[in-house]
Amino acid sequence: MYFLREGTRHRPGGAWLVLIRAGSVAAALYVLWIGALAQIFGSWALDLSRLLDSELLARFATWARAFNAYFHLDISIFIAITFPIAFLTTTAHPRRKALAWTDITLAAASLAVALYYILLNDRFLNWSRGFSQPSTGDIVAGLVLILLVIELCRRSVGWGLTSLVIVLLVFTVFGRWMPGPLRHDNFGIPYFIEMMTIMENGVFGAPLEVAATYAFLFVLFGSFYEKSGGGQLFFDLASAVTGRMRGGAAKACVTASGLYGSVSGSPTADVATTGPLTIPIMKKMGIPAVRAAAIEATASSGGAMLPPVMGAVAFIMSDITGIPYARIAWASVLPALLYYYCIYLLVHNEAVRHNEPRLPEEQIVPLGKALAGGWRHLLPLGALIGLLVAGYTPVYVAAGATAAVIVLSWFHRPTAIGPRRFVECCTDTISQLVPLVGAVAAAGVVIGAIEISALAGKFTLMISAVSGGLLVPTLLLSAVFLILLGMGMPTPAVYIMGAALLAPALRGVFNLPEMQVHLFMLYFACLSAVTPPVAVANFAAGAIAGVNPMALGPYAVKLAIGGFILPFYFLFNPGLNMEGGLGYILECVVFAVAMVTFASFAMQGYLGLRHIVWPLRVLLFVCAVATVSPRFDITLAATLVGATVLVFAKLRGRPAKIDVSA
Fold it and tell me: Is 211 inside any structural domain?
């Protein structure tokens, strides 16, 4: 039904395209400036001013080095550029393909509102809550901005999140008439507008601020990295390492998509970048289109879990929790490797079952040749990791790594980033950000509504009531909520919403550790991209493979089964996050490997060519669930029973019929 879907993405031509490109370049340069270039150029100018005794350079150095980012101004500038582009490139209706007068009107309105906030920035910068009062202009601009956010969210990600925003706004405004504990105190429109559009809890809150800094810069880094040839290096390395194995095409896809996904952090962007290369190769090697697309979607969706980059989500997590990014990345290493181990295990099992060949020799690039031809693409990643370890801010790190990509590209003429490619990368970045901008702006409205109506505490009570106040049912409800929330939403937006609604319950009621709680939400935010009914990674992969995206869901969930169980495991066994002594960490790793192995074979029902009968599959899955327990005796018993089941299935199971369907 079309009225339940978002609009159609398109790129206008002519003068509109010129404006979009100019705005994209302006946004990139401004974010790079506030992220790192101001400090870098300021330091250079200071050194030159001393060398040349130049008063002008000294003044510029003082101004640049003292340049500070102001959240309200920066977000206003970001809105002034991205909102008009979003309205011009996303139609109101999926059947409409061309630009309409309504798109132009909304683009102009969003620019006008943003300019209002930019021109009056000093007033909002010095705003004093309780003393400053919104004017009539503030109220009108605020109401228009909220309506624009709702419409942009609907166009970008559909009615799922939009309906939630509308319901929460109705609840916030009319809450004084709600029954029982849902009721909240009355407040006026000026207070509502102040909280939603001036203070840091609404539209101008953390979600859009993150989109305007971390997310923008890391998507920009990914665009430049891909344009300079970095994506090809990942596939060459993957084919060199796994191409000669059985099922080499699928394993190369998993490797390449995981590596690139760590840089991009976006399942859809990863599928769109690596999918056109990997899916046709898998199909050519005899892998059914549905299975090839599901492998690509599942491998791409794990990128935000995989250090060292983890896209922008880990930086958002660091910003929300105050946990250093380096510690988050270190804690994520083992779970991420186990997620991909699970995918490799099932891909290899299918390869054995179907006797899939390795990649043709002409498509395998020798490892030495791949490194000799693309070693320079490893340097930006090295610069990124080095800057992170050195303790620089994530914004500075992303900006510095982007600058490194640009400079290093000049040493290879075919992929050198000149003016034309620079504009293309900036435009592609804005294009990728359009769905995220609408979603995170709406997430800011949701957080503002929660703050005004004190809904967080009520939501905690509601979850406790439904789950009976028990931990495991609460975790299961939280996982389902995150997956449902992720229907069509970008991964960062799902995580931000989970952090606002679920973290208070999991942290406050059950006193669960902060790191594990937020990694739990990060994992399910990623997995929502492959979980039916609306799975953005499946839709992207299905379009490339030429199959119905809905057909990908069952097999994608099988491949990702390890990812669904791992968050529960490390909540109760923090050794998997590198916490505790070496012995405890090794113990957790061994049992976690057993857990995802049992769950994988239970879901697939085959052990190579041996069929696993249903009673044994159920027993295997029970063993996998029991392994989650923090009690050593229960975990050990479950591991021994599960291992015995696999040995029995290997020795006594009947050979399976070859079946090429997914």
Answer: no
